[in-house]
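Two folds, back to back.
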Amino acid sequence: MNRLFEIASELNQISVSRMKLRSEIDFIGESIIRHEAEMIPEGGWPGSNADTRKAMEKAAKASDLTLQNLANGKINAQSEMDALEIERDALIAERDAYQWTIRDRENVARGVESVFVAKPSEPEPVSDEQAKDNLAASARLFEMDTIADACKWDKMTEFIDPEVGRARARYRQLEAEQAEYEQKYNL
């Protein structure tokens, strides 16, 4: 759970950085437009035809150091923005995976709870014979005092209901993934 708070904090920091970079990129873009407008000579670009004028404009822009510095600044800021986007996407993917792991565990817990925990409803009347049978079945379940007996019980329930087997396998897989995740991030 702490990792989710860390991810939220990192995403917040990235959002602030992205806003600053977006402002910087916009400001540089406006500065480039303003500087290009200031570069135009009073009578327009010299030349006898449109191609010559276009060539003169390109040559003037290519040789202007201020325009080059502004363009490089915009490229660098955009590169930083792209790096932040990649980092943001990775954090969102990590957060989503973590949240799905938590949801899967909750679903497994709800499934186990629905099977093993009595529902808070009014009990139906049970005959004496049914009560004896239930008591005997419970006693047989609690007599399993070895791991081998427990494993036999697991195999038997998986044989009777394949969904139980798949749920147990998924739960073991989620536990392994969580342990690996916690080991990887030193949680």
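---
second:
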Amino acid sequence: MDPISFDGLIDQKKIIELVDIDLQKDYFILGHYDFRRSEFRGTSYPQFAVRAIDVLGPNLRNADRQQANSNLTFSTTSNVYIDVPNMVLTTIELGSPTPGALGNYQIHFNCSYALSDDLSSAQLILNINGVDVAASEVIEDPNTVGIQRTTLIWQADSLPAGSIIKIRFKITPGNLGSTVTVYNRTLMIDGINNLVVV
């Protein structure tokens, strides 16, 4: 078998996108270097075939797992929803088994927070693509001051790639000038192609 020039393939723009790879049917051509032979140099080596699934693994693009963390302390007196700083993630392309597939997501959020007085409450809400998801609203009303901890989980199905997921919050003040302060926090998304059976 004749050696192959990968430089030549690049020059001819014979490059395919990751989303176009069929794990079960496609193969990679591997230029295998043999240190015992001196006639091959540069990027021209003898050709061998390697199954795509052996290189990329069986779960290519089926899953989307991301996480955002922040320790930035932030306070607000806003009684209308505003973004929780640094709590935003964007879904990726889930192209297997079919390109452009939608994803089903579990969304996890946890944070430490404190209210300035025991008459106030904090509200948290999930926002997807600029729309507050009303059914996701959670009221945190600990009836005490001091740092509290909350963990929330939501389910969002049939999201396309590029969906923007973020967390927003506000305060229902008990007194004039009441504040809610958020401390360390984490947003995680765990999505899977909605055509995949698990």
